[in-house]
Write a structure and sequence with these properties.
- By secondary structure, the chain is mostly helical.
- The chain has 4 helices and no strands.
Length: about 70
């Protein structure tokens, strides 16, 4: 499933936009509810023209199942 169509809407959220801005100044540790994780990763990895941080993202999960769900 692709979340590409929702990315512009998600990037308009003030809390997530603040996290993306903070990521532009160095490393960032974000803890989010499970349902929010794919959106946070997509927002951080999005190119700057879309409002993202345009940087590599390392998403760490506790289990292989969570990693598969996030992917």
């Amino acid at each position: 499933m692709s979340l590409t169509g929702l990315l512009d809407t998600v990037l308009a959220d003030p809390a997530l936009a603040g996290a993306v801005q903070a990521a532009g100044s160095g490393s960032l540790d974000i803890t989010a509810p499970e349902a929010m994780r794919p959106f946070a990763v997509a927002a951080l990895a999005a190119d700057r023209e879309r409002g993202g941080a345009a940087r590599p993202v390392l998403a760490v999960t506790a289990t292989t199942r969570e990693a598969d769900d996030l992917a």
